[in-house]
Specification:
It contains five helices and eight strands, in the order H-H-H-H-H-E-E-E-E-E-E-E-E. With about 210 residues, it is of the alpha+beta class. The chain is globular, with a radius of gyration of 21 Å.
């Protein structure tokens, strides 16, 4: 699977990955692309919601085979998946609220990591985050040029970009949610201004 700049995963790849059926080099290439592509992160979240909704609806049909829902279920499977994802997820939540279904499968809560010291001021050993877990980064902006939005980039120790996104500041802090976790190792969080000038660099250690 070749996913370079300007290219994104198709619907089949998203569905196979969400179902755990993407294997080998294709899986590795997609996960590497997912680290830096916010569009594909959002598309995968929609696909996850769609498949969860379909599993719930199918389970309800199996419990009540005389309800006459089978044709409706079949028609849904023929519709464009991503277009119906959010609507189906909302419908499933309403159904579960009415019948008292115990719980929905929830994504793990991100680990909150507050970054205060920049690189060279406090060292990389002082900041740690869990490996392969979603992260909620909170960056202290004291002394940084005040802007409405910043470009946030995470690079590994070799300087290779692993994540980037435009993030808005609020109350002197910057928060960014990274859905895909990182492997253990040393990373640096870079903050850029509108002219691509580096404003600050924070050290981040990911540990098992």
């Amino acid at each position: 699977m070749a996913l370079g700049e300007g290219r994104h995963a198709d619907e089949d790849t998203l569905e196979r990955y969400s179902r755990g059926r993407l294997r080998g080099p294709d899986n590795d290439a997609f996960e590497e692309h997912l680290l830096v592509c916010e569009r594909c992160q959002n598309a995968l979240a929609s696909m996850d919601s769609y498949l969860d909704a379909m599993r719930i609806a199918s389970a309800e049909e199996r419990r009540d085979p005389q309800s006459g829902k089978a044709p409706w279920i079949e028609r849904l499977f023929q519709m464009p998946k991503l277009a119906w994802a959010f609507g189906l997820a909302a419908a499933a939540i309403l159904i579960l609220a009415g019948i008292g279904y115990p719980t929905l499968r929830r994504a793990p809560s991100p680990a909150v990591v507050v970054l205060e010291a920049n690189r060279g001021a406090g060292g990389i050993d002082g900041i740690a985050a869990p490996a392969r877990k979603p992260l909620e980064l909170v960056l202290n902006l004291n002394g940084v040029t005040v802007l409405r939005t910043y470009r946030l980039q995470i690079v590994d120790a070799a300087g290779h970009a692993q994540f980037q996104s435009e993030v808005a500041a609020q109350d002197g802090k910057l928060q960014a949610t990274i859905r895909k976790g990182f492997q253990a190792g040393a990373y640096f969080v870079r903050l850029y201004g509108p002219n691509q000038d580096l404003l600050r660099e924070y050290a981040l250690r990911i540990a098992n």
